[in-house]
Amino acid sequence: MAVEPIVRLTRPEVIQVLESITFVVHSIVPEKYRYWKSNLPGACSHPVAICSGPLGTILVLDYDFTSCSTRLLRIRLHQPADVFEEKKGYKDARDVCFSCGVVFVIERGNKAIRFNDMNGSVKLCPNLLRSRTQLESRLRAHNLSLEGNVTTLRQRLAEHLEQIARKVTHPDRVQIEPHLRNPAALCVATTKF
Predict the structure, then answer these.
(1) What are the φ and ψ backbone dihedral angles of 17, each rounded to 5 degrees?
(2) What torsion do the CA atoms of 103, 106, 107, 110 make, to the nearest 10 degrees?
């Protein structure tokens, strides 16, 4: 990163001018907007919520007023902007939040918080645990036996996770007790940097 622009912007004259201004508008895409195959008019007709997403992207909920359904869009902040549909079919979704690779969507129609795992970090996959120590720590967390070789431990953990998964009726929803009545907004606070 160049130091010269920072030095220019922090000069006392510039600071003095900025302090006298009450409102500043800054465009996200500084160039003239160019159409591309993914960002044609109507690609995002009614955005109701927006948040920053993974590096260089924003996440937008696009609401359809006729069907009360919502789509989750990922927009890459590039020139021209690329619009990708991550998921559709949310019922009356009103807010979106992104944290640690997971997108959380408040869905009023189903009275739930749904999530979309963008990094594959939510679901535990026993085959990705390579060392015996990793397997043993996960087995201890579920109060399972530590007897056997690595293959046996991995199989035991996989079977236990399958039993848990069979009990969950909606695997893409955050499990909350008591159930939500009318969720409207969501905010994430994290200590990870």
Answers:
(1) -65, -45
(2) 100
